[in-house]
Design brief:
The protein is an alpha/beta fold. Helices cover 24% and strands 27% of the residues. The strands form 4 sheets. Strands 3, 4, 5, 8, 9, 16 and 17 form a 7-stranded mixed sheet that branches. A 6-stranded parallel sheet has the order 12-11-10-13-14-15, covered by helices on one side. Strands 1-2 form a two-stranded antiparallel sheet. Helix 5 links the parallel strand 10 and strand 11. Bound molecules: NADP nicotinamide-adenine-dinucleotide phosphate and zinc ion.
């Protein structure tokens, strides 16, 4: 066991504060990553504030982790000391069930192990995330980073925000000739706009924030719709091949379902705390429209996404903060006041 230092939530409404805990000793297939930067996902806020059920405190969030390999177990073959590496939302899964066999570890039938707020099979210890100075993880769950090292802070959000949009964009075949809507231009949504554009789709951004219209175009949207403007929404009825909704709050799904054309899909990735309003059955059945959900992405598709982003020069738009600013960053995320992802400089973590 080695002592790790972290920045933790100690109660649902208390401030973050230092916390130390033990990480497991390196096993043969493990790598140790010294964490340089960690993104802040809205899921961190939901977890740390107890919005998705009672977390066990102290809670160390963080699943947009990038850093450098500082040790490798004696059976590790894919990484060496000094490599840049990332960890997303998953640190383990059974490896044997159908979904694991298809590289869909996030849908593991035994239950995948989350980077935080889970229990690790190896030690029975709680998992603690990336607001910490290092992490030990099976090499299968570590990702290679091929971006320039100077891009590293802006690569961190790809590990959750990037893959959570990449997976449904690929699964529902976003590309040339497809009209793709991205709802909510926050951490996930701004990556959705960039990725859908790079995949060749016609991209339409939906926002509640008039101040984001020009921004969304800069990010790659061909069109931007103010979703509270019923006149603008009405012009797009029955026209979309795919809409991905990233909003972290309750939504009226009827207004998005109506925008789909025959046989098209509204995918929910946002996961607030209140139930959405269901669309009318006729809205769905008259055009054989579907509503689906999608959770993050598997390890091989995460690597595929990172490689695609490195090749196409895609990173996240970020605001870097020291650990002391995590509480105020959470408040700003809830107020939709971030362009478009906070990333913590882990060099600011007290380790004394
Ligand atoms: P975020 O940065 O806070 O972005 C959410 C965006 O939704 C906001 O920027 C805002 O965009 C819009 N929004 C917020 N409140 C709204 C409201 N009341 N009505 C309409 N629009 C609203 O959050 P994020 O990190 O992108 O995460 C989004 C959600 O996805 C969270 O619930 C998170 O837990 C979930 N998530 C799911 C997965 C998964 O695997 N499915 C993975 C990661 C995160 P505009 O200003 O443009 O309207
Ligand atoms: Zn996340």
């Amino acid at each position: 066991m080695t002592i790790a230092h972290a920045w933790a939530a100690h109660e649902a409404h208390g401030p973050f504060a230092p916390f130390s805990f033990e990480r497991r000793t390196l096993e043969p297939n493990d790598v140790r990553i010294d964490i340089l930067y960690c993104g802040i996902c809205h899921s961190d806020v939901h977890f740390a504030r107890g919005e998705w059920g009672d977390p066990h405190y102290p809670c160390v969030p963080g699943h947009e982790i990038v850093g450098r390999i500082s040790a490798v177990g004696n059976a590790v073959t894919n990484f060496k000391i000094g490599d840049l590496a990332g960890v997303g939302c998953l640190v383990d899964s059974c490896g044997h069930c159908g979904p694991c066999g298809h590289g869909l570890e996030q849908y593991c039938e035994v239950g995948s192990t989350g980077t935080y707020m889970s229990t690790e099979a190896q030690s029975g210890l709680p998992t603690y995330g990336g607001y910490s100075n290092f992490i030990v993880v099976r090499e299968h769950f570590a990702l290679h980073i091929k971006h320039e090292e100077s891009d590293l802070p802006a690569v961190a959000p790809l590990l959750c925000a990037g893959i959570t949009l990449w997976s449904p964009l690929r699964h529902w075949q976003a590309g040339p000739g497809k009209k793709v809507g991205i709802v909510g231009i926050g951490g996930l949504g701004h990556m959705g706009v960039k990725l859908a554009r790079a995949l060749g789709a016609h991209v339409v951004a939906f926002t509640t924030s008039p101040g984001k219209v020009e921004e969304a175009k800069r990010l790659g949207a061909h069109e931007v719709i103010i979703s509270r403007d019923t006149g603008q929404m009405a012009q797009h009825v029955g026209s979309f091949d795919l809409i991905i909704n990233t909003v972290s709050a309750k939504q009226d799904l009827e207004m998005y379902a109506r925008l789909l054309k025959l046989d098209s899909t509204l995918v929910l990735v946002g996961a607030g705390t209140e139930k959405h309003t269901s669309p009318d059955a006729f809205t769905l059945l008259m055009k054989r429209r579907s509503i689906a959900g999608s959770a993050i992405g598997g390890i091989s598709e995460t690597q595929e996404m990172l490689d695609f982003c490195a090749e196409h020069g895609i990173t996240s738009d970020i605001e870097m903060i020291p650990v002391e600013k995590v509480d105020s960053a959470y408040n700003r995320i809830v107020a939709s006041d971030v362009k478009y992802r906070f990333v913590i400089d882990m060099g600011t973590l007290p380790t004394g």
